């Protein structure tokens, strides 16, 4: 009985709180995602342009379709997970910007997915094309 009395004594404003908490809950992940995208799209090291160029000299064609235009150097383990592998050539693979980067590198979802088997998948696709 004491409990129900207490509940009725609450000021009406109190139910604004859960709504705020809910809003924060929904806003936080999108903010986090945006930060992750920022890191994924803009590697921080000043050496990245040079490492990228050197990688493209070694691997000048899309690993999946063989195209030599509009290439991206993709991080197999994403930058936001392992920033220490940003400049590690073993973590890089050349993919054309469209569609192989999205298909093989990110399994159709740039924001959330990366494909640890991108090299194997690209190689398999390539032998099918040949
Ligand atoms: Zn390609
Ligand atoms: Zn990528």
What structural class do helix, strand and pairing data support? Answer: mainly alpha
Major β-sheet profile: 2 strands, antiparallel
Please tell me how large the radius of gyration is.
23 Å
- How many helices? The count is 5
- Kindly state the percentage of residues in helix: 40-55%
Give unreliable regions as ranges: none
Q: How far is it from the N-terminal to the C-terminal residue, by CA?
A: 79 Å
Number of distinct beta strands: 2
Tell me which ligands are bound: zinc ion
- The proportion of residues in beta strands is 5-15%
Which word captures the global form? Answer: globular
Name the average pLDDT. 81
Strand sequence of the main sheet, in spatial order? 1-2
Instruction: Domain count, please report it.
Output: 1
Order of helices and strands: HHHEEHH
């Amino acid at each position: 009985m004491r409990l129900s009395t207490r509940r009725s004594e609450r000021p009406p404003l109190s139910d604004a709180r859960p709504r705020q908490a809910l809003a924060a809950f929904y806003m936080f992940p999108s903010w986090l995602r945006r930060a992750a995208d920022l890191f994924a799209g803009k590697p921080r090291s000043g050496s990245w342009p040079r490492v990228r160029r050197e990688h493209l000299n070694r691997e000048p064609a899309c690993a999946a379709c063989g195209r030599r235009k509009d290439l991206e150097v993709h991080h197999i383990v994403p930058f936001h997970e392992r920033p220490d592998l940003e400049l590690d050539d073993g973590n890089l693979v050349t993919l054309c910007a469209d569609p192989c980067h999205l298909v093989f590198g990110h399994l159709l979802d740039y924001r959330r997915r990366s494909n640890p088997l991108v090299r194997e998948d690209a190689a398999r696709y390539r032998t099918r094309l040949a």
